[in-house]
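Example protein as discussed:

>
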Amino acid sequence: MTVAVRDKNNTVEDFPGASNVTICPAGYTLTTGTRTFTAGTYTIFGAYEVAGAWTNLPSTTMVVGAAPTVPSPTPTPSGPTAGKTLAWSDEFNAAPSPSVWNDSTTSSYQYGNHNPSDNKLDWITPSDVSVSGGAVTFTAQPGTHVLENGNTSWNTGLLTTEGTSGGFQVKTGDYIETRVKLPTGMGAWPALWTWKNGNGEIDSFEYHPDNPNLLEFTNHVNAASDYYTNASTINPGQWVTIGTYYGANSVQWYVNGVMVYQDNTGVGSTWSAYVILNLSVSAGQYHPAPSGTTPITFSADYVRVYR
């Protein structure tokens, strides 16, 4: 048993005096030695070994001193919600309200409820969005519709603020955040993103299980993107908190409260767009399509917007 620590470069920075501890029937109290860390962000987790095989326990982030940041051309909040208040949210304690979410169509899809030209097998199906235990779950499963390109669809779920009586839009200066459980099924393509008038697209994240430790961040308004990889916090079946600050001159992306990328291009001072949270299904051109018929799921704990 040990208490493990890794820095941003995955260098071993374990606490001393905790390795090779044997757990016996009488029990054991683990007390490590002390050590110092230079300023930075670390991943800390317990781990145990059975018959030569190590198993890592859930990890947490440890920040020592000032967290490293990328120099910003504009004033940067000391935290993603600094000086802001909660302006809009859904905690998913009840079924999505029609005044808040539209679950049947989006203008971002060529045919409203499906979009084969974007290498998606999606057929938006309201019954594939469900709420239970304070989380919303999107389920993708084989469908019966034949798409325009000849592929057979998968029924799946999507929620958007477009086309609702509330009509909520995020805008320049807002910070959006969600906590999601990344899917495990091959072909899954979950995302939190924005759309309006044929574009307005900022991808808070996209994820594909064939790249199990990678999140995709993209600004389609003023072109910029990043592949963020972290094996400690990004894994199939793992919960992770992802946020985006829509800066006029620089969009910033946060993972578990720590800024990991900013694009230095921004969205401009007058940008606004609708919110989309969904589970798409890859058709196989860029990422593998599902290899069988087993349903795929993706869950979110909440979506919150601060301004």
Summary: The chain has two domains: 2-64, 86-306.
